[in-house]
Amino acid sequence: MTAFTMPSLGADMDEGLLQEWLVSPGERVHKGDVMAVVETDKAAIEVECFESGTVGRLLVEPGTRVPVGTPLALIEDQAVPDERAGVGEAMVSKAPTCATGGQEPATRHQRPAPRRKAARKPEVTPEPALAASRKEPTGEHVHAPPEPSGGADSVIGAGPLVRHLAVLRGVDLTTLHGTGPGGRITRADVEHAQPPLAPKVRASPYARRLAHDLGVDLAAVQGTGDGGAVRAADVRTAMRTLAGGKGPERTDRGPLTGDTLPDAAIRRDSRPEDRTDTMRRAIADLMSRSKREIPHYYLSTTIDLTAADDWLRRINRARTPTDRLVPAALLLKAAAVAAREVPALNGYWQNGEFVPASEINLGIAVSLRQGGLLAPVIHTADTLPPDALMTRLKELVQRARRGRLRGSEMTGATLTVTSLGDQGVEAVFGVIHPPQVALVGFGAVVERPWAAGGMLGVRPVVTATLAADHRATDGAVGARYLTAVDRLLQRPEEL
Amino acid sequence: MSQMRPLNSAEALSLIKESITQIVPDADFTLVEPDDKFRDVLELDSLDFLSLVELLSERAGVLIDEEDYPDLTTLSDTTRFLVERTRRGS
């Protein structure tokens, strides 16, 4: 058994707000599956599981702010489904005695896997047993300790399989009389139970809370989630309908309607204005630290993009818009490969020395429409062909703007690239993102007079810049880097 | 890509606006004059523009090549382009 903890989603993150669980206890998860949504100062991030197993207890309520490293849930070891599962007998599930996720052989029993659900599926109705033992959260708790153990499982004598079945069938376990050993509720008990008169509404925990806070009857809300589960956005839609089109949230500009940043629009501590404020503050802190601690030096060079442009045009001609490449894909690839040639710019400044990184993970500065910016990460960018880079870039930019990045997409950048070309400027001299030691900038691709071989012509050019940490490298190293970027872009077919 | 019937100007313009709105949900078209460069006014970056090309080409059922991009600069250009392209049958 291990603990799924509040991850650090950036060098500047100390704590995070658990916004919503996307898994339920008893659910099998695999490494990389999305477990929960966590709000940081900058964005709502989908946090993935780092190992496979079965979701045990959820230790932290949605709406709770906890420090990085706090256990959020227990992950029980992956196990081969037990043959007893077929017999339909509920298994004893002892609540863990400690929330820190130590090894607990007693709980390493085999769990039959509920059918795997889509990773992004919102949680179905919380288990009746758990729900009963929970207080209705009324708002954000600060630093709430993990729920003490010994709750649901010991109150209701039913194993996870049975509880899961009860959830699926909408049966309230507290109303059942167990016929198993020691009054334990068996699968048969659930199967024979009368379904409740009004079937329990499937809804995500946040939707449930929102409905409660807004006084909306969940049963009257049309769910658009998996299997008709009610999502937070549905509650707000219902609210707007009830209020004659005037919802409680702001109606001014901002892409915060519908699916974008679905859960951020109402919560007291994260209204869009606040989100912008907290992001502004986070950027201010990080950039101040950068300028306070890092002695920057700056280099700039203008690169002839004729070869890259021709190559792109040739490639794109045969492609549908979906598969076309933009110059940014080639620029990123060149920036990544050049870092392989000049590893002194790829890594971190830690404890007074440069620590090179083993991979080249490019942070991509993405400006958000509502203001602010995020720098999601393309991992091992130097190894990706331009097509794959392009796909990743599109995904990251889209998710960054929708406020739904994954945890792994927010961490591990070893070098950041910023491109302000679309804003129409020719050069950007960036501020390094600590603890990284360099930042590469690309301006707009523009046509300029260009002398080559004694002839003057008009060519597409881009200004590439480098801001680098003078503690880690000297100008000569930076110069080698920009020269490499230039050389690589002259042979786009090899990128 | 299914060829649709020819679009008239009004239909083309509303298709363009719908498509842009899908990419920039809060796009305010009261700020965009017919001959403004809408990419600048509405802050569409190169990826956004590519998405727009994708949507227009899908919805209008026409091929849009990179060579056509200069015809997609203003709302009136783009409207004219779609009307002509759909009439010509791609």
TrEMBL record, chain A:
Positions with biased composition (Basic residues): 108-119
GO cellular component: cytoplasm
Keyword list, A-Z: Acyltransferase, Lipoyl, Pyruvate, Transferase
Spans annotated as Disordered: 94-156, 243-264
EC number: 2.3.1.-
Matching PANTHER family: DIHYDROLIPOAMIDE ACETYLTRANSFERASE COMPONENT OF PYRUVATE DEHYDROGENASE COMPLEX, LIPOAMIDE ACYLTRANSFERASE COMPONENT OF BRANCHED-CHAIN ALPHA-KETO ACID DEHYDROGENASE COMPLEX, MITOCHONDRIAL
Protein name per its UniProtKB record: Dihydrolipoamide acetyltransferase component of pyruvate dehydrogenase complex
Species the sequence originates in: Streptomyces filipinensis
UniProtKB/TrEMBL annotation, chain B:
PROSITE patterns: CARRIER (PS50075)
Coiled coil: none
Gene3D superfamilies: ACP-like
Pfam families in the record: PP-binding (PF00550)
Domain Carrier: from-to ranges: 7-86
Name this polypeptide is given: Carrier domain-containing protein
Species annotation: Streptomyces filipinensis
